[in-house]
Amino acid sequence: MQEQLLLASLLVLGALGVSSFAVPLLLRTPTPLVVVMSGSMEPSLSPGDLLVVEGYRSRGPEVGDVVVYRSRRHGRVVVHRVVGVDESGGKIILLTKGDAVEFADGEPVEMGDVLGSVRWRVGWLGLPSYLLWRALGRIEGEL
Prior knowledge:
Helix content: 10-25%
Distance between the termini: 52 Å
Radius of gyration: 18 Å
Shape: globular
Number of domains: 2
Strand content: 25-35%
Number of strands: 7
Largest sheet: 7 strands, antiparallel
CATH class of the largest domain: Mainly Beta
Oligomer: single chain
């Protein structure tokens, strides 16, 4: 009985280990899962929603895509919609905005900071993570 329990535990740990490497490779992003932490994208996305993120292949982000990027200004991951794309000067620069916000973000986003675009949303599945971060005081204001 103990040997079966040990074998089952090893199989589960092995599967988790393989999936922690396989999922980022399959989705072409180091951050395949993101929890929404603010209301800036409501009503499309709500705090506590779990997002599946996929990296870009050959084409870059287009206006209307919901992208996940690392904000240099805020030092954290942001989920906002692309409202403009500037491809002049040999670089791709995005202008983004939260759906619940009146004006575009003041921070241009370089492609090197983009982790990917939102492919699927699983409502409220990330709520435990959101509530924990909120309780720890790690969520500061809205982006």
